[in-house]
Every structure is written in structure tokens, then in C-alpha cells.
Design brief:
By secondary structure, the chain is mainly alpha-helical. The protein has a domain of 44 residues. It is elongated.
Length: 90
Amino acid sequence: MLRPYPQYASVIPNTQPDGFNRYNSFQAKLEAALGQRPDFFEALAVDGTVLYELRQDAAARQALERAHALRPDDEAVSRLLTQLNHESPR
């Protein structure tokens, strides 16, 4: 059975699985109401906030401006945009 592969002397069954020797996957399901476009506000707001904390001001401003365009009435996004626009470069 193993003749074509002489470097393998035998086959040893895995009697103590560690949980990482099998296929691992991440599956997600996105649902939207019929006739509505997906709303990416939360992803943009979190992305902008994280980038702001990492002092990536240009990227944070871009993400927060896109989030603001989706929900102009959101106070947290507006507050971060105001801080970014009025702060000196960090």
C-alpha cells in the first residue's frame, strides 16, 4: 500500500486528536429585509474608531465620513469626526 512512497514507513492513527488537525472554517449569514440594501454603518463606525485609537487619522476620517453619510444623526460618529477635524496632527 505504501510502496510508491518509501519515505513513509507506516501509518499511525491519530488516537489523541488535538482539534486542529481537521478542517476549520468560519461561516456567517447575512440577512437583509427584502428591498433594503445592507447597512454597513456599524462596521464603518467600529473601523473608524479603532483607526482613530491607533492614530491612523486619514483612514479613520475616511471610514467615519462614510459612516456619517449613512447615519448623519449618530452623535458618536459626529463627535469623533469633529475631534479629527479640529486636532493637530498626532
